[in-house]
Amino acid sequence: MKFYVQIALAGALAALGGxxxxxxxxxxxAAPPPAEAFRLSSGDKIKVATYGEETLTGDFxxxxxxxxxxxxxxxxxxxxxxxxxxxKEIEAKLGDGYLLNPxxxxxxxxxxxxxxxxxxxxxxEYPYTQGLTIRGAVAKADGFTYRANxxxxxxxxxxxxxxxxxxxxxxxxxxPGDTIRFGERYF
Length: 187
Prior knowledge:
The chain folds into two domains: 45-110, wza like fold, CATH 3.30.1950; 112-187, Outer membrane lipoprotein wza domain like (Outer membrane lipoprotein wza fold like, Roll), CATH 3.10.560.10. It is 19% helix and 25% strand. It has three helices and ten strands; from the N terminus they run αββββαβββαβββ. The strands form three sheets. It has a five-stranded mixed sheet, with helices on one face. Strands 2-1-5 form a three-stranded antiparallel sheet, covered by helices on one side. β3 (67-70) and β4 form a beta hairpin.
């Protein structure tokens, strides 16, 4: 009789084990790690102002190679730099035989777009706006479809190799160049 009780107990534990939740996946924390300071990348458009030099002031788009073509000094690497770092780089090159003590200011005119894909009503490419969150991205894409899994989101940050899965409980920030995908629910 004791043997049958042990078998029944083992069967009950196995059945209850199937009811347990899934083990968390890599990257399934409450939110992705906070992004470091914004860095320029190809596709970003910037406004460069060189004080006292109208001919060295203008709008530039960062090329696919990660550079801008700046008057007098030619190609300047911009991708991977913060705006302050790029300002100092241009100042150094202009100060090397072109201008005396140049002052350069840079502002981002427009950011890389974000891509909102999967089970949303209007998937596609959308312009990035500062302060955009995951829930704001859903709103931009006209909400979820009836098939959407509204509990999970897949996020691929620009420059990263693959996407990570996160719970929708956290409304975290979207960055320029991000690809956001909402999966399909199964039931």
